[in-house]
Amino acid sequence: MTEDKNKKTEKAQKINGVRGMNDLLPADAAQWAHLEHVLRDLTRAYGYEFLRTPIVEATAVFQRGIGEVTDIVEKEMYSFEDRLNGEQLTLRPEGTAAIVRSVIENNLLYEGPKRLWYTGPMFRHERPQRGRYRQFHQFGVEAMGFAGPDVDAEIILMGQRLWDELGLKGVRLEINSLGQADERALHRAALVKYFEQNAVQLDDDSQRRLLTNPLRILDSKNPVMQALIEGAPRLLDFLGDESLKHFNAVQSLLKANNIPCKINPRLVRGLDYYNLTVFEWVTDELGAQGTIAGGGRYDPLIERMGGKAAPACGWAMGMERVLELMKVSGSLPDTVPGCDIFVLHQGGETLIAAMIIAERLRSAGIDTILFCPPDGQSASFKSQMKKADASGASYAVIIGPDELAKNEAQLKDLRSSGDQQAVALDQVLEAVIDALVGASE
Ligand code: HAM
Predict the structure, then answer these.
(1) Which residue lies with its CA nearest to atom 9 of ligand 1?
(2) Going by CA atoms, what residue is nearest to atom 25 of ligand 1?
(3) Which of 130, 137, 139, 295 could form a disulfide with 119 if both were Cys (CB 3.0 to 4.6 A apart)?
(4) Domains of the chain, each with CATH number or no CATH
(5) How many C-beta neighbours within 10 Å does residue 214 have?
(6) pLDDT band at 336 (very low <50, low <70, confident <90, very high)
(7) Confidence at 126, pLDDT banded by 50, 70, 90
(8) Residue ranges lining ligand 1, Cβ < 6 Å
(9) Residues 222-256: pLDDT tens digits?
C-alpha cells in the first residue's frame, strides 16, 4: 500500500532539448511561414529549382568539400560512426558540399547549367549565443555551370531583393575576390613570409595555421592580432588580369543595378572551396553574429568532389539571424491570423451535430476549431466562449440542446458587433460564408 503511494508521488524527471538546438514554437511559426513564403516567391522570380538533400552525409563530403583545415571540419562537425556498418557519417554543417554531391551523383548538369535552391537545418558544434546555434536553418541558392560575372551579380541581386521584400534596413554588402589558385599561392608565400617575420605576435591557433593554412590567420578575431592582420599583404594586389576583369565586371553590374557594396580585402570566408568573388551581408543590429548571409564563387569544387569540372557560385543565409533582424527592424508581421470559426457544443447529440458542421465548414475551405473539453466530458458555454475569444476566430457557432431541439445553431460575431443570430442547421455554411464575406468588405 505505502509502496504504491510512493510510486504515485514519484515524478518522472523531465528531459530537456539539446543545448543550442531550439524548438520552433507555435507563437513563432507564422513568422517562419512568412519568411519561407517570401523565399519561395524569390526563387520562382529568378527561375531557381528546389533540391533537397539528406541531413546526414558521408563525412568525406564535407572533409573534401569544405576543406580539412577549417573550423567547421576541425572542430564543429557532428560526426559519428554508423553502428551497423561502420560508415563515417556527419550531420550536414552547410548545404553547398551536399548539393554538389547530389548534382554529381544525379548527373544534374548533363543537360546544361542549373539554378538551385535549398533550405533546412544545419549543424555546427559552436558555442551557443544570440544568433549562433548548434542547429540552425539555412536558405541557400547555388547556380552551377555558369562561368561569367553575370551570375555572380544575379545571385547578389537576389539577396538585395530579399532584404527589400523583408523590409530589412542597414544590411551592407561586403565583397572581395580570392582570385585563382596560382594567385593565392603567390599571396600565400608573401603572407607566410610576413607572419614568419612577425611570428612572436601570433597566438597559438595562428602559429599552427601558419603551417597548415596561413590564409585562415586573417580570419582570427583575436583583438591583439588585428594590427598585425591589418598590415599583412593583400590578395587583391596579387590578382592577375583575368581575375581582376571578373571582379570589376561584377562590381560594374552591381553598380548598374544600384547595389552599393564595399570592397573588404580581408574577407576570406571560413570555407576552402571559394575562388574569385566572395561576399557577405552584414548588419550592426545583431551584436557579434552580424553576418546574415555569405557566399561566393566556387569553381574548383565540382571537380574536387569527383564531378566533371563546372563553374559555380551561390550563397546561404542564416534564417534565425534574418528573423531576428526582422524583429529588431520591426518588419515582422505581428499577429498570427486566427481561425475563422470556433464551434461550441454541450457534448452528446450536440457534439455530433457540431462535428458534422465543423467538417462541412472545413470542406468549404473555412478554418474551423471544434471545442474539445479538456476533461473529455463537457464544459460551460462561458468557459468555451473564453477559448473561442482567445483562438482569434471571427465567429462562433453555438449548438446547445435548446438549439438542437429547434434544429438550429447560433452564429455569434466575436470581433466587432457581438451580434448573435439563429440559423437553421442546414444553413450554417451559407450564413458563415455571408458573415465572413461581409466582414472582409
Ligand atoms: P556560411 O558563411 O558558413 O556559408 O553560412 C552562411 C550563413 O549561415 C551565415 O552567414 C550565418 O547567417 C548562418 N550561420 C552559420 N553558422 C550559424 C550558426 N551556428 N548559427 C546560426 N546561423 C549560422 C555557408 O554555409 C556556405 N555554404 C554558403 C555558400 C553557398 N557559399 C556558396 N554557396
Answers:
(1) 293
(2) 94
(3) 139
(4) 26-179+239-329 (3.30.930.10), 341-435 (3.40.50.800)
(5) 21
(6) low
(7) very high
(8) 94-96, 124, 126, 131-133, 136, 138, 140, 142, 270-271, 291-296, 298, 314-318, 320-321
(9) 999 999 999 999 999 999 999 999 999 999 999 99
pTM: predicted TM-score of the whole model, two decimal places: 0.90
Strands 368-370 and 420-424: unpaired
| Ligand 1 midpoint to CA 94 (Å) | 7
CA 315 to ligand 1 center in whole angstroms = 8
45 CA distance to ligand 1 middle (Å)? 23
- pLDDT at residue 426, rounded to an integer: 96
AA identity, residue 233 = P
pLDDT range class, residue 1, cuts 50, 70, 90? very low
